[in-house]
């Protein structure tokens, strides 16, 4: 239940931060995962090991989905599941940057009910429980009320501006910014620091789950690239991109995006 799961996630995230910051990002052992799945460091695995021991022990009936654990179908039979990214932004961690995060969530019947995104190097802890609002370091946060794309600052990687993603073959005018951690991008939108974020390629659930609830509890809106609500704990744990923002900007992005990625005016 949200009221009891959130304190558990907060305590686990703080411990994850203590473990990760014992490693020096640039000297931590690093290697590439098979099949181009990206880098991993000894810090990722150390954090994952702690979380995989601690969280299921506290909630024996919950399933488990983590970037650093081999996936099984067992979680599909569970009503509730932990969705975990031990370190989101591993490349940034390995480069010695401060913009990496721990992303922890619980989903119940496909909907996230408790979530934490923690950046230990920036002392930022974003948290939310269903129906209880979203906070940053214990203080309430709210998504942007900006209602014009021309005035909006949107977090997005440059490839998302390619014409094929947009109706009429051209992205609308807005100010683009970027942060390497996808979870942090979503938290920043929930905080109102940016008006929206979008990623138009298939996205792993563990990158998205915590940010989805934080943003929704901050009175923003979060959907896939076609505007459909996000559902979690899928057999293939990938989502069809993500559009997240204040309600006004979210609606405008959905109007301008081509859900098929062809850039053809419907």
UniProtKB/TrEMBL annotation:
The protein's required cofactors: Mg(2+)
GO terms of biological process kind: inositol metabolic process; signal transduction
List of residues binding Mg(2+): 67, 85, 87-88, 207
Single GO MF annotation: inositol monophosphate 1-phosphatase activity
InterPro entries noted in UniProt: Inositol_monophosphatase-like
CDD domains in UniProt: CysQ (cd01638)
Keywords: Magnesium, Metal-binding
Keyword Magnesium applies: yes
Transmembrane segments: none
Gene3D superfamilies with a match to the protein in the record: 3.40.190.80, Fructose-1,6-Bisphosphatase, subunit A, domain 1
Alphabetical list of Pfam families matching this protein: Inositol_P
Family: Belongs to the inositol monophosphatase superfamily.
Name the record gives this protein: 3'(2'),5'-bisphosphate nucleotidase CysQ
Organism (species): Ruegeria marisrubri
